[in-house]
Amino acid sequence: MDRDSHDLEQFTTGGRPARFGEDGVLWIDLAKLSDGTGSRYVQLALSWPGTDQQTVREWADRFVGQVGEL
């Protein structure tokens, strides 16, 4: 998936770049792919309605830490 250059505030989750979208979805970049025309990313989207962002970040940090390298 392509990312826009005007991404929202970024932080790391499980050692990988992450950010919350305007819709509250947590986007985590699992891997960066270069194809000669730019960079694309393998991303994980986590939507957890009704849950505060801190709880989502803590859960995602534990989960992504178990994914390993792609």
Report on this model:
The chain has 70 residues and is of the alpha+beta class. The chain has one domain. 21% of the residues lie in helices and 37% in strands. It has one helix spanning 53-67, and strands at 10-13, 16-20, 26-34, 39-46. It has a 4-stranded antiparallel β-sheet. The longest helix is centred in the C-terminal third of the chain and has 15 residues, at 53-67. It is globular and about 40 Å long. The model has no long low-confidence stretch (mean pLDDT 85).
Sequence-ordered SSE layout with sheet pairings:
Layout: E1 10-13, E2 16-20, E3 26-34, E4 39-46, H1 53-67
Q: Assign the structural class, choosing from mainly alpha, mainly beta, alpha/beta, alpha+beta, or little secondary structure.
A: alpha+beta
**Could you give the distance between the termini?**
15 Å
Q: Which word captures the global form?
A: globular
**Largest sheet composition:** 4 strands, antiparallel
Q: Could you name the key traits of this structure?
A:
70 residues; alpha+beta; 4-stranded antiparallel beta sheet; 1 helix; 37% strand
Could you give a short description of this structure?
The chain is an alpha+beta fold and 70 residues long. The chain has one helix at residues 53-67; strands at 10-13, 16-20, 26-34, 39-46.
